[in-house]
Amino acid sequence: MERIDLDGSELEFRRIPGLAGRPWLVFLHEGLGSAAQWRDFPDRIAAGARCPALIFSRHGYGQSTPLAGPRDVDYMHHEGLAVLPALLDRLGIERPVLIGHSDGASIALIHAGGSGRAVAGLVLLAPHVFVEDISIQGIAAAGEVFRTTDLAQRLGRYHRDPAATFRGWNDIWLSPAFRDWNIEEYLPAIAAPVLVVQGVDDEYGSLAQLDAIDRGLPAPAERLVLADCRHSPQRDQAAASEAGILAFLRRRVLA
């Protein structure tokens, strides 16, 4: 992993080479994710699309600087409107394809609709644009798992401070102040093509998220709704997710 000092933190990242002139694929991980937890999924997508790719761990995740305190309600706004633009500028990346999972998908939407910067496309895995009851129930259940199982130890394989990583995600989502969190205002400004990938059995969100995205975008998103799939399509249905993403990229972005 390479490292970069940005926004008062040291962030870990890695780059995958690709063909010159192809857009960069920028992978944005979920609320308990990191660069390493994508495993080889970015490598397979980058190889299939013949595009360069960037994978990084946000502040508080992976081997990047751990959190020193609780997150604010607008933490995803800060990532999409301040940190991601600064990182792309430092690395010389323009007009990327943003591939985000869960929190990362929400950050991708905020960036695409609110930063004033062009993106070539969006691939959204299990995105959230508002808070549902199922989201709160799933996150509360995750808190019980963290307290009663070896989840902290398992997260410690990837994160420098697994307790801070978990609490930073779990506590803010369960905060009463977060219940009104909503990013639908950013959708009308997104002109790039969008693919949404959602599992039917997602424990953190429903197809109502996709409906809200379609209502807000200038043109409806393409959908890939997968059976026998929970919150992580890239793991639960890896082959179908990879095939759908590559077909979308070839048809809508790389053609």
> Helicity, in percent?
25-40%
Low-confidence stretches: none
How much strand?
15-25%
**CATH homologous superfamily title:** Alpha/Beta hydrolase fold, catalytic domain
Spatially, the strands of the biggest sheet line up as 1-2-4-3-5-6-7-8
The outline comes out as globular
The profile of the biggest β sheet is:
8 strands, mixed
Secondary-structure-derived class? alpha/beta
Number of domains: 1
Q: Under the CATH scheme, which class?
A: Alpha Beta
Number of helices: 9
Radius of gyration: 17 Å
Primary descriptors:
single chain, 255 residues, alpha/beta, Rossmann fold, eight-stranded mixed sheet, 9 helices, 8 strands
Quick summary:
The protein is α/β, with parallel strands linked by helices. The chain has helices spanning 41-49, 75-91, 103-114, 133-148, 151-155, 162-174, 208-216, 233-236, 238-253, and strands at residues 2-6, 9-16, 25-28, 53-56, 97-101, 121-125, 194-199, 222-226.
